[in-house]
Amino acid sequence: MSDLAALWAASGLAGLDAGAAIMIGVGLLLLYLAIRKEFEPLLLVPIGFGGILANIPGADLALTAFESSLHGGDAALRAQLAEQLGLPADATGKALSTAFESAGVALQASLEGLAQDAGYSHGVLYQFYRVTIASGVGPLVIFMGVGAMTDFGPLLANPRTLLLGAAAQFGIFATLLGAVALSSAGVFDFTLQDAAAIGIIGGADGPTAIYVSSILAPDLLGAIAVAAYSYMALVPLIQPPIMRALTTRAEREIVMVQLRPVGQLERILFPLLLLVLVALLLPGAAPLLGMFCFGNLMRECGVVERLSAAAQNALINITTIFLGLSVGSKLVAGKFLEFETLGILALGVVAFAIGTAAGVLIAKLMNRLSKTPINPLIGAAGVSAVPMAARVCNRVGLEANPHNFLLMHAMGPNVAGVIGSAVAAGIMITLLGG
Amino acid sequence: MSDLAALWAASGLAGLDAGAAIMIGVGLLLLYLAIRKEFEPLLLVPIGFGGILANIPGADLALTAFESSLHGGDAALRAQLAEQLGLPADATGKALSTAFESAGVALQASLEGLAQDAGYSHGVLYQFYRVTIASGVGPLVIFMGVGAMTDFGPLLANPRTLLLGAAAQFGIFATLLGAVALSSAGVFDFTLQDAAAIGIIGGADGPTAIYVSSILAPDLLGAIAVAAYSYMALVPLIQPPIMRALTTRAEREIVMVQLRPVGQLERILFPLLLLVLVALLLPGAAPLLGMFCFGNLMRECGVVERLSAAAQNALINITTIFLGLSVGSKLVAGKFLEFETLGILALGVVAFAIGTAAGVLIAKLMNRLSKTPINPLIGAAGVSAVPMAARVCNRVGLEANPHNFLLMHAMGPNVAGVIGSAVAAGIMITLLGG
Amino acid sequence: MSDLAALWAASGLAGLDAGAAIMIGVGLLLLYLAIRKEFEPLLLVPIGFGGILANIPGADLALTAFESSLHGGDAALRAQLAEQLGLPADATGKALSTAFESAGVALQASLEGLAQDAGYSHGVLYQFYRVTIASGVGPLVIFMGVGAMTDFGPLLANPRTLLLGAAAQFGIFATLLGAVALSSAGVFDFTLQDAAAIGIIGGADGPTAIYVSSILAPDLLGAIAVAAYSYMALVPLIQPPIMRALTTRAEREIVMVQLRPVGQLERILFPLLLLVLVALLLPGAAPLLGMFCFGNLMRECGVVERLSAAAQNALINITTIFLGLSVGSKLVAGKFLEFETLGILALGVVAFAIGTAAGVLIAKLMNRLSKTPINPLIGAAGVSAVPMAARVCNRVGLEANPHNFLLMHAMGPNVAGVIGSAVAAGIMITLLGG
Amino acid sequence: MEESLLQEGLDLMLFGMLTVVLFLALLVLATSALSAAVRRFAPPAPAPIAAPRSDAAAATDPSPAVVAAITAAIVRHRHATARRKEGP
Amino acid sequence: MEESLLQEGLDLMLFGMLTVVLFLALLVLATSALSAAVRRFAPPAPAPIAAPRSDAAAATDPSPAVVAAITAAIVRHRHATARRKEGP
Amino acid sequence: MEESLLQEGLDLMLFGMLTVVLFLALLVLATSALSAAVRRFAPPAPAPIAAPRSDAAAATDPSPAVVAAITAAIVRHRHATARRKEGP
Ligand code: NA
Ligand code: NA
Ligand code: NA
Q1: Which chains have 3+ CB pairs within 8 A of E?
Q2: CB of A336 within 8 A of CB of A26?
Q3: How far apart are CA A15 and CA C249, in angstroms?
Q4: Primary place of residence (chains D, E, F) (predicted)?
């Protein structure tokens, strides 16, 4: 009979609390959005599934050995852990967790060792998290693959569009300020680091958002990644009203000059130029932009097709699977079902809207100052969300003039937006990280 | 001349003992079976080769730095290690090993550090083992890939066949009892954990067997994995006599109802349904079945083809290479050339036989109770060994009726057997693990 | 304003010293050679790019947390680190580094932990280095892939060519002696380990050179890998003059006997034979030749096509990317811009030349002793540099006799050279490693 | 230990087998309910069970000779890409 | 903390946005200079911007039917290779 | 150190080179014996040395035009699959 009792005690139903149930529901909702609504499915399918796995009561897939041991009923072990942390033997699990997080690396390792000695082990999702996100490697490898998939041709043909990519980053910084203002007003309790990580949602770049929040605000990573990918998927709904509101029909009808052809040498030299500028001026952006330029150089140099193909296929796909599951491992009730998450979701959509507006307005300004016409719609592509935002520009443009194809013109600001948010990320990590 | 002496002392011939020579022979035998007899070559080629590499005298490829240092002649280091382990300075290597295994994580790390300081390093096969098996990650990634390759259509068209997959797991538990009985009788010396890991051979599922024994009985892992894959390859020899003995010709001639088509929505919802049931009732099975369902969802959802292809190709192939070599690293003389290994091999084949018989008999029972005809041969497919067992059913069925194709009907119990043994694995890990 | 000051302090321009600037130039030069001159681009593109990334001032991508912390200005942390290392609180960064390198594993881990507690983290290139090179795994995986790409047919058809592969390794040992002689003469300051690692450049095998120097001379790894790959690319320039100087036109015109067909069974048994010989006689070569034989067995056995394809494509390409970046991480000014590097470059080209000459001369000798004709040009292919050296033989042979195709005949010594340098590597690691 | 090893093994067998059967029986019920619900509320377009999605694409059915030629080309292509162009 | 959180946020916004704009403006200048230099000293052979290198290979332009057949064959081939031949 | 560095280097060269030559000479003998045994006890079906297994499949030998079309299709297919459909 003891077996039956043990099985029941270990079963999910016995351990299920409201938080875990809600989070499993959130995971299913993300899967629904990803599969049925095609919301960025490459990331949201693994994230949603990882979120469900992380919340299975009793399985502890997203926990370290130490965290698992706090769920277990071993009083002697607990007293031992508490003693090492300088707490009384009857300290709550919450108190032990908090003390653990502020402990040093050596003490943490020692506590994990004690938990492992007692038979607890690291959950598999935690192991994925440690290797792909805590190390910082996962988003960088994705970024390398994105670089290997990126065509800088349209940008090189019209380098002015880099300014549109810069303008759209205003969404990031305005949102940062908004988060800080809401905290100052006492609505939320975000630190400056939290605010920066939330702002980066406005960069509309998944790996950048994951990278920044893994450094500045790991506790918010789940909510930030979900918001970033969800809003990237919602770009076709969020952007068009703003684009229409800020432009006249005449502006939307502007036909742009045919892009000149770009040769291979320019394509090879551009990632190196960008790398050197980053190296000299913004080393904080070097991990992200360095890997991005490396991927792009492999693509364009024409002599390492094997490596470029690996970066664009096997490597990025494998990394995406584990990165998604790892992000999902952060969707645990204690960290996601907080009032702050609502703030993150609200601020995220504001960030997208401001970025879109800034891009369009600067494009209008450039149109005044320059004699080469720019259709202001392509400013909206500066938020990145490659290539969705560029397609939205194209579609809104076609509404105004059915013969005016803006897609290629919008690809310039679109990839410029990737560079822009990586630059913004580098600045924030330099000033707030460490 | 000292060079010559050093080379000779380091050479394999100087260090070769009978155990290593026999194990190299065992490795060559596995390669012969894999290549010439096509015994599950995807696993047995790496396992056999890894077994040879692990037994090269003096190369210490499968050993940690600490284990390597015990082979070295450094008396001062040895005294230091013995002192930390609380043993006298002249303790034997065996005594040091035993003390090391029962030491805590912190002390083990400290001893490994001392050995590394003295110039010893972890062997490459040990490193593969630590990353793919000790972490538990390798079998889970394989299981994800298997999920991405699994077609649940036949099972969904005829869900009753899940019961056949359940019935065949009787082989697992009967073998467990047999192993325990032999231990009680004093023939072998298996613990309950060992018995459970041996029983899982009857699950006819390689990754499940490796996963369970890596947790419950790491010392037996080599023998268990070799038995599991060898008997999976022998399914065409083991099963038909049992199938024929337990059925009449009339039963073998039964023609089954054509399977109904299964739509995509059912295919998408099934892995989610299974996941939720596992989450609520059997969290111990969550790692295995969670990854399996994740792979299957990627396959069926239709929006992440890139990831599904990666899981089915690059990722599973790469993991298989390293998993096989890691299993091979456990084929060292000291652990494999034991009387227990004979017991494992004998019990393994019994497990297959009992599982086959149980599947066939329950299919006959279902045939009595239900009016929809079931050909009892397909019960044998419930052991899994996908898709070999289903092909065997088809072949034995064609002997009786050359126009009766059972393949698709047998795929239902076949994949049900995968679920069934993962469930059994979860129960055993919950009750006996940790 | 403090932000502006912080950004400037963190910027590359503020931190740029001459060494870093020169090394960035070296990285760009390597990229130029790789892309424009097609110098082994698969390795030199990642190595060159990694070299640039490693030298970005302030980004610390190639440093551990401890090393990064020495660049930071935290005096309290520094005093703490110095105290643990038994140094005065005002010790220089150089002194701390030196003390760290000679500290034990446990103390190093503790110091890294302190640096991480203070907010420093391991750079991404350092993480790649630790996983692919420090562990020894990267070169071995590449070697497995090379094995899976290697056709031993020509070698099996004419096994005598193995002796040419042996002869060409004289380049390795002569260079070792040269390096030692220069050190004895006081020109350089190479240890015996350094000399061996430099000599291995003459093996003309990238992964072997990286593997050996990662064990015997990690500080020289960057220069050695760059020299090895550069000279492999320069084989078409280095070898022909030597080949022409040492042979008469009549010798170069020798037509060789058509190679016999080689069956699958021989192809399967050869890697096993080689493995057994290595196991018995030279376990020090077991990691390299074991993985090489494993790859070749997967290729030839015909039953694991999936695994062979993975080893030849996804796995080797992914590993090449990270291995190249990791080698690049060793191209930091402090270690590369030394007078020793010039010595390595000079000795490397000598090694190639001696190896080429030895191969040709032994082929001439064999031609005297045997009645089956051997074109002495194919002796030059014994240095390996697969398949470039074989192509060079073919080209030089065609100059003498436009109808004499030596390519297939040269493939025998070419792959024999791979075995030969792995054997030499094993000897050196056995005698000098640990 | 209050129970003998054999008793423990017997317990484990009984509970284990029972749990496996109950779990899979529950899965039969749940799957049947799921299928019924799906077929009621979202009837799928009929598609033969043995045909994976990709076969639909293959329905244009090129002649075996063409398939053979194509396969050869693919093999050759793969082989070519797998070749060791430069010795890594 | 001498500054309020809000003040810090405002500073960060101003400096951050300014740096982004300046960096990308510098990149505009550098890129334009680069392009000018390349087109002056190493004029590229003209190639339409929208055409990636691989399209050149596609210029033989097989008929849609042939492409469909080939695609089907590739899919079938991939499917076949992806199949679980032996249960790993 | 009883020997000078130079003496050690010389020793290492002599022993190293000798070992390499002896090992590969032994391999020549063993390989020759292996080949003789295989050809005696299991004579292989003759196959030209330069033809890897896959070329057998290519023996149906489609015309260059067909191969070109197929290659284009494969390249296009690969390119298409490599494209960044959704921005990961
Ligand atoms: Na952006
Ligand atoms: Na099973
Ligand atoms: Na060589």
Answers
A1: A, B, C, D, F
A2: yes
A3: 86
A4: membrane
**Residue C152 sits in the same domain as residue C261:** yes
B309-360 residue pLDDT tens: 999 999 999 999 999 999 999 998 878 888 889 899 999 899 999 999 999 9
**Chain-chain contact of F75 with E66 (C-beta, under 8 angstroms):** no
The pLDDT, as a whole number, for residue C2 is 64
Task: Note whether A424 contacts E: Cβ–Cβ < 8 A.
Answer: yes
Amino acid occupying residue A115: A
> In total, how many domains does chain E have?
1
Q: Which ligand is nearest to the CA of C382?
A: 3
Domain that holds residue A254: 137-433
Which residues in chain C are closer than 8 Å to E85, comparing Cβ atoms?
A: 306
Contact between chains at E15 and C306 (C-beta distance less than 8 A): no
d(CA B88, CA B28): 40
Q: Shortest CA distance to A292 belongs to which of E54, C49, E28? A: C49
User: Per the structure block, which two tokens stand in for C154?
Assistant: 């020509």
Q: Are residues B201 and B59 in the same domain?
A: no
Same domain, A117 and A144: no
Checking ipTM against 0.90, whether it exceeds it is no
Min CA distance, A388 vs chain F (Å)? 8
Total structural domains within chain B? 2
Count Cα atoms within 13 angstroms, Cβ side, for A235: 33
Which ligand approaches the C-alpha of residue B414 most closely? 2
Residues C344 and C405 in one domain: yes
Distance A54 CA to ligand 1 centre (A): 30
Assess if residue B416 is contained within a domain: yes
Q: Is residue F13 part of a domain?
A: yes
The interface residues of chain E toward chain C in range 12-51, judged by CB-CB distance below 8 A, are 12, 15, 19
* Residue E12 lies inside a defined structural domain of this protein: yes
pLDDT tens, residue by residue, D40-83: 887 755 544 443 443 333 333 344 444 444 544 444 444 444 44
Please indicate whether residue A256 or residue D48 has the higher confidence score (pLDDT). Answer: A256
Do A105 and A159 lie in one domain? The reply is no
Say if D26 falls within a structural domain: yes
For A412, the enclosing helix (H) or strand (E) is helix A407-432
The answer to whether residue A4 scores a pLDDT higher than 80 is no
- What's the B41 CA to ligand 2 centre distance in angstroms? 19
Cα(C383) to ligand 3 centroid in Å equals 4
Q: What is the pTM for the complete model shown?
A: 0.90
Same domain membership, residue B150 and residue B34: no
- Chain E residues touching residue F70 (CB < 8 angstroms): 70
Q: What is the separation of C-alpha B324 from the centre of its chain, rounded to a whole number of angstroms?
A: 10
On whether both C37 and C113 belong to a single domain, the answer is yes
CA–centroid distance, E17 to ligand 1, in Å, is 13
Nearest to B210 by CA among B72, B327, B364, B345: B327
CA A335 to centroid of ligand 1, rounded, Å: 26
Say yes or no for a CB contact (<8 Å) between A3 and D11: yes
Residue E30: which domain range? Answer: 2-42+60-86
Closest CA to C163 of C411, C366, C418, C421: C366
> Which tokens in the block code for residue E15?
């400096």
**Is the Cβ pair D75, F54 closer than 8 Å?**
yes
Q: What is the DSSP letter of A392?
A: H
Look at residue D14 in the predicted model and tell me its pLDDT: 93
Q: Which residue of D has its CA nearest to B195?
A: D9
Contact C142 D88 (CB under 8 A): yes
Q: B203-214 burial, b if ≥16 CB within 10 A, otherwise e?
A: bbbbbbbbbbbb
For residue range C125-151, list pLDDT tens digits in order: 999 999 999 999 999 999 999 999 999
Indicate whether F48 belongs to any domain. no
B396 in the same domain as B302: yes
Task: Say which residues have a Cβ less than 8 Å from residue C20's Cβ, sequence separation at least 6.
Answer: C55, C56, C57, C333
Per-residue model confidence (pLDDT) at position F5: 87
Asked, for residue A7, whether it belongs to a domain, the answer is: no
Distance B170 CA to ligand 1 centre (A): 57
Q: Is residue A258 part of a domain?
A: yes
